[in-house]
C-alpha cells in the first residue's frame, strides 16, 4: 500500500513504512543555561563525516529539552546496550525527571555523561538545521569511548537485541 492509497493519514502511513527500518538507540544529554541536566532518546543518529569527525542527531522540536539543545554548546551521545531499554524509555518520557537517582559525571562543557553504555561520544555542537518538526544537531566529536556489550535496536515499534555473536572457529 502506498501513502496515497492509505485513506487520509499520510503521517501514519510514513511512520508504518519507516518502522520497518532498524536503528540503534541513543540517549543524548546536555546542560541548560541554568545548570540543569537535560536529555532525550534518539533513534535518528548517524555518523556524518570522519574528517572532521561529525555526527548528527535529530530532536523533535516539541521535546521538553528542545530549548536546552537550542542554546547548548555541547552534547554527549550515549549508544545504549541491549539491556538498557528502561534507560531509553526514561529519556523518551515527556515530563519525567530523567536524572532522578541516575548518576552522571560532567564531561565536555559539564555535559552529563552516563555510565554503563555501549559507547559514548562527547561533541561540540557546531550547527543546527531545520528538519521540519525536528531540528538536526551537528556535533564535532571531541572524545569517544567504547565499552563492552551488544547494541539496543529499535524496529517495528519495539526494542530488540541482536543474536549473540558467534565465536570465531
UniProtKB/TrEMBL annotation:
InterPro entries to which the protein is assigned, alphabetical? Flavin_Rdtase-like_dom, NADH-dep_flavin_reductase, Split_barrel_FMN-bd
Q: Does the keyword Repeat apply?
A: no
| Keywords for this protein | Oxidoreductase
Q: Which Pfam families match?
A: Flavin_Reduct
Q: Which SUPFAM superfamilies match?
A: FMN-binding split barrel
Record-annotated Flavin reductase like domain positions: 18-161
Among SMART domains, the record links this protein to: Flavin_Reduct
Name of the protein in its database record: Actinorhodin polyketide dimerase
Amino acid at each position: 500500500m502506498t501513502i496515497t492509497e492509505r485513506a487520509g493519514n499520510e503521517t501514519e502511513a510514513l511512520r508504518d513504512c519507516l518502522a520497518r527500518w532498524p536503528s540503534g538507540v541513543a540517549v543524548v544529554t546536555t546542560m541548560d543555561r541554568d545548570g540543569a541536566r537535560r536529555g532525550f532518546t534518539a533513534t535518528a543518529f548517524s555518523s556524518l563525516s570522519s574528517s572532521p569527525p561529525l555526527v548528527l542527531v535529530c530532536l523533535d522540536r516539541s521535546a521538553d529539552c528542545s530549548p536546552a539543545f537550542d542554546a547548548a554548546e555541547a552534547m554527549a551521545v550515549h549508544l545504549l546496550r541491549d539491556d538498557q531499554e528502561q534507560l531509553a524509555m526514561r529519556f523518551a518520557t515527556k515530563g519525567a525527571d530523567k536524572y532522578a537517582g541516575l548518576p552522571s559525571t560532567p564531561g565536555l562543557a559539564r555535559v552529563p555523561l552516563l555510565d554503563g553504555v555501549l559507547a559514548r561520544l562527547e561533541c561540540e555542537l557546531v550547527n543546527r538545521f531545520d528538519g521540519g518538526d525536528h531540528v538536526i544537531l551537528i556535533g564535532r566529536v571531541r572524545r569517544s569511548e567504547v565499552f563492552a556489550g551488544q547494541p539496543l535496536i529499535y524496529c517495528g515499534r519495539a526494542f530488540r537485541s541482536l543474536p549473540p555473536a558467534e565465536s570465531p572457529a
